[in-house]
Amino acid sequence: MKPDFLTTTKRESFTTWKFRTLMNWYPMYFGTGGKILFWSADFLEVHLRLRLNPWTYNYVGTIFGGSMFAASDPFYMLMLFKALGSNYVVWDKSANIRFKKPARETLYTRYFISAEDLEAIRQEVREKNEVTRTFVIQWKDKKGVVHAEIERVCYIADKAHYQQKKGDSQRAKLEFKLNRND
Q1: Hey, which bits of 2-127 come out as E strands?
Q2: Between helices 115-128 and 75-84, what is the axis angle to 10°?
Q3: pLDDT over 90, % of the chain
Q4: Is the dihedral of CA 71, 77, 80, 83 positive or negative?
Q5: Which domains can be identified in the chain, with CATH numbers?
Q6: pLDDT averaged over the chain?
Q7: How many Cα atoms occupy the beta-carbon half-sphere of 122 within 13 Å?
Q8: Which of 10, 27, 131, 179 can bridge 40 by disulfide, Cβ–Cβ 3.0-4.6 Å?
Q9: C-beta separation of 162 from 169 below 8 A
Q10: CB neighbourhood size of 129 (10 A)
Q11: Closest among 46, 43, 45 to 29, alpha carbons compared
């Protein structure tokens, strides 16, 4: 049974169910020990579970911090990528984890992006061509006790701007190489 803080009014679609199922079996994610329990039809909410098991425990018998970090890795980037659409580029830029309490029981986390946040991102990209956003998740036990907090920074850009910027960077590298060889 899921903890109360994972309650939602949103529904999962066949598309997000299929995506969630494939992600759970994707070897790179499966190896983290995490499991995706729910992915909303609008791609703006995701629920995860991380159990203490032979794949996730550390030397002292608690959930390995690397498992918490890895199991939480791609979600904000994927959520934004799916929700914003093909006119945007989204990359994970950085992450930071703070451990609060050793975990000897199953942990859960909830990812959420509001429709207002999504529109604010779109507006900021329209104005500035690119933005970074920091998102915070908390790994909690069933009682809601926080065991770790993770900040994830995402880079979001207008696709045309990103391609131009990437092209400018590659041209500058080539010019540098050519000038060095003179």
Answers
A1: 34-39, 45-50, 88-99, 107-112
A2: 80
A3: 71
A4: negative
A5: 4-180 (3.10.129.10)
A6: 90
A7: 14
A8: 10
A9: no
A10: 14
A11: 46
Q: How many residues does the chain have?
A: 182
What distance in Å separates the CA atoms of residue 8 and residue 129, rounded to the nearest whole number? 33
Look at the block and give the residue holding tokens 């050519």: 178
Torsion from C-alpha of 37, 155, 157, 42, nearest 10 degrees: 10
Paired with 95 in beta bridges are 152
DSSP 5: G
Q: How confident is the model over 57-72, as a mean pLDDT?
A: 91
The strand pair at 45-50 and 107-112 is best described as antiparallel
Q: Say what the alpha-carbon torsion angle 26, 29, 34, 39 is, to the nearest 10 degrees.
A: -60
CA angle 42, 155, 158 (to 5 degrees): 75
- The Cα-based distances of 32 to 5, 13, 54, 102 in angstroms read 23, 25, 11, 18
Its pTM stands at: 0.85
Contact yes or no for 112/144 (Cβ under 8 A): no
Q: What is the DSSP letter of 89?
A: E
- Which residues have C-beta within 8 Å of that of residue 92, sequence separation ≥ 6? 73, 74, 76, 77, 152, 153, 154, 155
pLDDT at 175: 61
